[in-house]
What we know:
Layout: E1 15-19, E2 22-23, H1 38-54, E3 59-62, H2 72-82, E4 85-87, E5 89-90, H3 104-107, H4 110-123, E6 134-138, H5 146-162, E7 166-169, H6 173-185, E8 193-196, H7 204-212, E9 216-219, H8 227-239, E10 246-248, E11 255-256, H9 270-281, H10 286-300
Helix pairs in contact: 1-2, 4-5
The chain binds zinc ion (ZN).
Amino acid sequence: MTVGGAIDADAMGFALTHEHILVDFIGAGKVSKERYDASEVYKIAMAHLVDLKKSGCKTFIDCSPAYLGRDVMLLRKLSEASGLNIITNTGYYGAAQEKFLPRHVYTESGEQLAARWTKEFKEGIEGTGIKPGFIKTGTDTAPLTAAQRKIITAAALTHMDTGLTILVHTGNGAAANEQAAILNDLGVDLSARVWTHAQNEKDMKYHVHAAHQNCWVSFDGVNPETVDANIGYLQRMKTEKLLDHVLVSQDSGWYNVGEPSGGNYRPYTCIATELIPKLKEKGFTTGDLDLIFKTNPAKAFAIKVRMKNR
Length: 310
Ligand SMILES: [Zn+2]
């Protein structure tokens, strides 16, 4: 489900599964579209998206959630002008000591939160008719707080109603296991979950374990400084024959609200220009790369209810 409407999952093509156009770190209490000039953001972001499109990318998954700078009209304009598919999200981000959670998280039940997110999928976001293509949530390291457990529960309930994939920002491997247990207890098949920022956990046995549980393991901090570390993670997953559970992205961008001209906007092209050539040198085949950047994203973000034993 893109900001321009539904497409066949197979039409996603080369996809980057965790990137950002705009982020506002001011906090849930103060965030507002009045804090930036959308036409300035458009101009700056568009130049980077043009470069990305030229590098062969077709689909861009924007991971900025509500209360952290989600602006779906801006995303739609950028999608139309760049020709890239752009996907946005519903859900709340509970990491960073819950700075980005709205107050109603503390007064409403998991069911009530899920009803809000499901409504965005059924009716569109903020009256725009634009629908989310996945659920974005987040927790810090283990142990999860009560509010973090509640939003993971809400994500599971939303998944059951909508078939949207649950992508969870995660502090470490122990937190990943705790989230998986919540989803598992509610009957959600873990193929509906993306462990985003798996690179925050350096102990690769957690990555292997999550993939064996059928989770998507997302190494999404690729930049010039981390190319080699990411190659190490990918080599391990290839050796374990688990590349069919891996996603790779950059967590790049973004227009940082509050900084002059959006601050230091990191380009989206490191995977194309640095990571892929190096992976080829290390013996990764075209088949491996198609799996990571085309087949896996299409499977991971296809909209489908995934419950155990059904
Ligand atoms: Zn991110």
